Amino acid sequence: MSEKIFTKEELSKFNGKDGNPAYIAIKGIVYDISKVLVWKNGIHHDKTAGNDFTQEFPHKAEWLDRLPIVGRLQ
């Protein structure tokens, strides 16, 4: 199975709203955060899922190891 490549427009549809999964991109990798409780409904603090958070990801990189990878950001 080939890896899914997301455009920024495609990624924006995975915002955790209306039954959609919640995905975020960090350093070109797209992660599924749908089951992360602090991202309920795709929102965590003032951030919304479906975006690239490479420049503003406040956690240690090890946190990402626990998340499923669903593809890459174009």
Automatic annotation (TrEMBL):
InterPro entries reported in the protein's UniProt record: Cyt_B5-like_heme/steroid-bd (IPR001199), Cyt_B5-like_heme/steroid_sf (IPR036400)
All copies of domain Cytochrome b5 heme-binding, residue ranges: 6-74
Pfam families per UniProt: Cyt-b5
Protein name: Cytochrome b5
Species, as recorded: Clostridium pasteurianum DSM 525 = ATCC 6013
